[in-house]
Amino acid sequence: MTIGEKIKVLRTSSQLSQESLATLLDVSRQSVSKWEQGISNPSSDNLMRLAEIFKVSVQDLMNDELQMKNFNRGHHYFSEVLKRKSIYLPICILLALFIITFVISVYLEFIHYDRSIIFILITMSGTFAFIAYLAFLSTILQYVYKDCKLRGIKPFLYVLISITILGFVIYLLRRDEITKDDGA
């Protein structure tokens, strides 16, 4: 498999247009097209940047003998983020604390315990839930920002609307159309 064929497979499996990849590399779309067709090869600087974008080694891109078996097809930032357990742990701990404090406060209310203690527990419970939400939201907004940059979209508006779950879903459903519109 040639360098150009590998670039094309990696680009399409990452759901990038030639225009978006060209923008990331600060080259013309025609250059990317020529690389993929085998008319020319990327410079060493561009090879290093391609390897970084696609999370492969430069040797993997250059070696004609290597097949695509070592490449992570369909590599997406968000799926990579979801695989990292370091993101889940704080959110899970905060959600567990939310549930525990909430259940305790409901039980104390049921047995008619002191209202000031119940109020403190409810406040703590809400705080834990809010912090867990902020951690999750931060992950979503980072994803939207990086996805916009990869696709060559100006991220401000789309990061802003992704603060809500509905806005995030709309972005996910329309991002290919947005990429085409911004690229035109």
What does this structure look like?
With 184 residues, this protein is mainly alpha-helical. 76% of the residues lie in helices and 0% in strands. Helix 2 packs across helix 3 (29-37) and helix 8 (115-151) runs parallel beside helix 10 (165-183). It is elongated and about 80 Å long.
What characteristics describe this protein?
184 residues, 10 helices, 76% helix, mainly alpha
Topology, element by element:
Layout: H1 3-13, H2 18-25, H3 29-37, H4 44-54, H5 58-62, H6 77-83, H7 85-110, H8 115-151, H9 156-161, H10 165-183
Helix pairs in contact: 1-3, 2-3, 7-8, 8-10
Distance between the termini: 31 Å
The tally of strands reads: 0
Helices and strands, in order, run as HHHHHHHHHH
Q: What is the CA-based Rg, rounded?
A: 23 Å
Brief write-up:
Helix content is 76%, strand content 0%.
